[in-house]
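Bug: token stream looks shifted between consecutive jobs. Job 1:
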Amino acid sequence: MGLRTDFLLTNLFKCVRTYSTFSTQKTSCGYKYNIVQPYPVSHQLTVGKEVEKPEYWESGIPSQGPKEIEIKTKELINTMKDTCQLAKTILSSVREFIKAGITTDDIDIFVHRHCIDHGAYPSPLNYHHFPKSVCTSVNNVVCHGIPDKRPLQEGEMLNVDVTVYRNGVHGDCSAMFFVGEVDPDAIKLSNATKEALEAGIAACKPGQPFSVIGKVIEQVAKEKGYAVVPAFIGHGIGSYFHGPPDVYHFDVSGTSRDEGFIMKPGMTFTIEPILSEGGTDVTILEDDWTAVTDDDSRTAQWEHTVLITKHGVEILT
């Protein structure tokens, strides 16, 4: 679950889009896909007393994370590894569950129950008042899609973003899924985004500037004929859901956004690029969360939580 970049935040909220003028389908290279429209949302699920909860579970307001990039202890790293593996396991289990006819609300219930069964809190739930336990983003929804009662349809693509909180830390990851048979362009977009993520991770090691991540991700995106959606970034993670550093997925080298931070062993953060097959301008809907492409283009996102080690990088999810 990524952060919105501050330099685009104002513009995002200037234009709230309604769907009254939307067409229901769009064609990409001869392939038709559905333009997702808001559907009714069910009640918010609850978490019992037996599950450890983050500080925002009731108020919706998280505490401030560290002011500087945290160097984690060996003990905290081991805890992070355990929690991240749970996030990975839950995300992987979603694959067999997804099929035409189920709703993203069904996915939310599925993920929520798996979290509770493993003694974990679903981190998105009530984080800044997000109403659900997972983010589900279908077709033209860029990210932070709120699970609802709309049935998934054959040929759709969606991102499922799972974050869990257990033993005092968060683990965050997301992946793309297909509903039945999809068109070749959907597969190409997803594969290119995953390749961009893998390139960004491969660039990580002690002594590297964080700006190298966005540089290599943007390079892969351009080589594949796609563009990076700049409005959402990766982030530091630990006992806090979001903290420093800001991890840009496009080249910020030499710009005011390049903070000059250098990777060091013990740092943990997410890398979560979003690529678009069309434009990169996005709008936040009236629910204050759901981001959609202005031109209704489809997007794809893949995400891992990673750890900088003494000799390189380790994928925790």
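Job 2, same session, no restart:
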Amino acid sequence: MKKYSAFATPYLIWMLVLTVVPIILMLALSFMEIEGLVFSTARFSLSAFEKTFKREYLIAFAQSIKLAGLATLFCVIIGYPVAYIISHLKIANRFSFLLVLLLPMFTNLLLRVNTINRLLLPEGFMKNVFGISLNFSGTEAAVVLVMVIVYLPFMIFPIYTVLEKIDPSLIEASKDLGANNFQTFRQVTLPLSLRGVSSGVIMVFLPCATSFTIPYIVSRGNIKLIGNIIEEKMGLTNQLSDYSVGSLISILILVVVMGALYIISKIDAEGETLL
């Protein structure tokens, strides 16, 4: 046992330095009034709490919830049928489809977003190849579309995982009792797969709501989400930087994320978590 504990030590140090220490630092900054990161001039203050609830930040928060909610809704609408179809394919075909969904996740997010955004430009790929001029680049619709494309696999995989685990005998029993395919799906498959849907919703909604790369690139800086506010406030050379406000917003989001993950861990009554 001591041998394995020794192997875990570098990981624990890594977690302490790059996770625990930054969280403690942000928590401390939330209660300070400080110029840059010069702690010698810092003093205790609750001004960050007052600034955090300014109208500008509340609008950004509401915008984040709205766009993330729309992206999540479309991911559910698209992702559930895709996951359902994949779960009913032969094993070899399942692997091929899952591989297609998985491969883009190994590429850089910035590269993917820039590539998709170029397809949406009025004089971009669609115009040059198909003669179709897309005029919604830089809009909320474009931001939602890119979010759906980027985060759709995070909806499909948890739903597929749950669908694959459903006991086929339950489906057969439903049909033996006289239920048709739709009734079987509505009364057996759908209720049993809602755990996967709830996991997918959290895994899509949270990164969408806190994203700053997608809205910044796709909207050309015209749409500010809460992630953009944090990036702006934590900037090293930005004149608008305010580490106290940025830290407080980050801590509040961290609390929301931890709460959501706790809820997910308690969804399965049998104690089998989905993450």
